[in-house]
Every structure is written in C-alpha cells, then in structure tokens.
C-alpha cells in the first residue's frame, strides 16, 4: 500500500510550488514552503487539507484570481498527480465563498478540467450539497456528454451516495433518485472506466432504494449494449448477496423451488484466528427441470459485544439438472486484515442459494498470533 508520503508528500508540494512559480517567479509562496516541513505526522486527508489551506493563504483574492492561476498552471505537464487533490478543494472553497452563481458554475467547469490530472470526485461534493439542482444541470448537460472519459466518470463517481473516502452529501441522500438521469445517460458508455463507476453508483443506491435499483437495472437490460449484462451484475452485487428476490430473478436466479440446501460439513469444529476452515456442502435439485443457482455462503462472525453479524461471500454459480446433486468444497480464511477483526466465540456458516439460506453449522473461533496485512487504496 502506498504511504501518505508517496501520495502527497514533500515532493508533491515542491512540484506544486515549482509549477506555480514558473509563471509567477516573484511569488514566494511562504505557506506552501512551510507546510512541506509539517506533513510528516499527518494522515493523507490531513495533508490535503493543510496544503489546500496553505495554497489559499498564499493566493489571496477572489475566485477569479484563483481560477486564473490554476488555468495558467494547467498548461504545464508537471501540474498533475496527487498535488491536484488540494488544488481542487481550494477551487471549491473559493467558488462557494464567492457566493455567486457565476463562480459556482465556473468552479464546476474548472473541476471538470482538473479531473483528468487526478480526480475532482471529492471536491465536487460540497458543490453538490450547496446547490444540488444547479450542479446537476451542468453535470447532466455538459459532463455526461464530454469527449473526456475522466469528466464523464466524474459525473457518476462524484455523485455516488456512498463514495469511499468522501464526505456524505446530505442533499443526495435526501433525494436518492436525483442522480438517476446521470447514470441512465452513461450505462452504455464506451469506456470501461466509466462503466465501473456507473455500476458502483447504482450499487450505492441499492443501500437506500433497493426496488428503484432493480427497476433501473431492468430498464437498462431492456435496452442493452454488449457490456450491460456485466455492468448490471456488478451493480446488483450487494442486493444479490443480501438475497433480494427481485434482483436475483432479474439476473436469472428465481426462487429455488425444489432445491435442497444441505448443512455445511465442517472439517473441524475449532479454528484459530489466522487459520482456515475447510467445509463441503451438497445441494440437490428435486424439481422436474434444470435450475440456475447463485450459491453463496454466509459466515456469522462474533462481534466484540458477543452478538453475531453475518457476512456473505461468493461461492459459485451453477445450473443443476433435474434430479442432480452438486457437492462443493471451500476453505474459508480467518487471516486478519486491517478491514476485519475477529473475536473468539461461537461462529457459524450457512449456505445461501438464490437468496434462500440453509441450516447453520457452528464452530468455535479461538485467538492466536496472526500476521496482519494492509488493504489497498481504492483504484482510481
């Protein structure tokens, strides 16, 4: 995993200073110079805020002055990478501070021009919350039809209800259907980069509006391109894991009439943190016709307070003929990572087929010394 220094460190701020001074050699930029020495103990988010504040202090004046400086810097190839993050946030601060509609619109257009240098997906969110309707007009009319895939992707990624690393936008959470026209316009985009964002946006929506999510996916499947089926599968992944019947049916996995789901057969009744638990399960089809099956398994983890919480893991998909049985094997890892901590106690595994769960098989998880790995940063 890259460190904060590797993403936004002294070198990034030095590059920002050099780029700004290329067109204004008399600019001393004392606060940006000072902040270079203060980044070491800060998190990535704190670094972005510190550099943004230093930039705003070194470039006093109104929004128009800041935009002029940044557009001049855009002429330089060195004006790119993680140094762009605090720059985009400075744009948002000045545009909203100005208070005029002209500065608001100009700020959005400048973010669109900057997003190809890194991403403006975080900086656009205060703009969305300040005036969602005005922002969506520009996004819907200009960004979604941009020839630049980075701008089209920004229109989807920046409006995600639950964008990772980003602050929530109460205006979007209060009007979850407001951004549907954006992803409607982009689900057949030629860019895989944009398609992934559209799928993630719709998947985010499923946390608030599962039925609207299914209805939107169904409309897309009625007018698909070559990538729509794959996009929809990715967009419905959370609903599928949750056993949502309409989402499963839309993907061709109807209610499993005649399907017998066995209880998992565990290789052991005790497993230590850091180890693996092998298990097998047999599924049978007693119906008179083949059945398409989405087969997952659920691990019921013990929480710190002693209660259990389920987490669904993908197992496989299969078509099971009439009268056939299928035996599956899996080894589930209990290796700790930074995004998951284990607590000792009685856990359980059960199988889920087309949203219907079978009986639990319980086991004891015990503590032991284990190696912790680090989860990676979200891919851009």
Q: Could you say what the CATH topology of the largest domain is called?
A: Serine Threonine Protein Phosphatase 5, Tetratricopeptide repeat
What class do helices, strands and sheet pairing give?
alpha+beta
Q: Total number of helical segments?
A: 17
Biggest sheet features: 6 strands, mixed
Principal-axes shape call: globular
Integer count of domains? 2
Q: Can you offer a commentary on this structure?
A:
By secondary structure, the protein is of the alpha+beta class. The chain folds into two domains: 4-250, Serine Threonine Protein Phosphatase 5, Tetratricopeptide repeat (Alpha Horseshoe); 259-366, Immunoglobulins (Immunoglobulin-like), CATH 2.60.40. Helices cover 44% and strands 18% of the residues. The protein contains 17 helices and ten strands. Helix 6 (84-98) runs parallel beside helix 8 (124-130), helix 10 (149-157) runs parallel beside helix 13 (192-205) and helix 13 (192-205) runs parallel beside helix 15. The longest helix is centred in the first third of the chain and has 15 residues, at 44-58. The two termini are 14 Å apart. 36% of the residues are buried.
Topology:
Blueprint: H1 4-7, H2 10-23, H3 30-36, H4 44-58, H5 63-73, H6 84-98, H7 101-114, H8 124-130, H9 132-143, H10 149-157, H11 170-174, H12 180-186, H13 192-205, H14 210-222, H15 228-235, H16 237-241, H17 245-250, E1 259-261, E2 265-266, E3 270-272, E4 276-285, E5 291-302, E6 308-320, E7 325-333, E8 345-353, E9 356-357, E10 361-366
Parallel strand pairs: 3-10
Antiparallel strand pairs: 1-4, 2-4, 4-7, 5-6, 5-8, 8-9, 8-10
Helix pairs in contact: 2-3, 2-5, 3-4, 4-6, 5-6, 6-7, 6-8, 7-9, 8-9, 10-13, 13-15
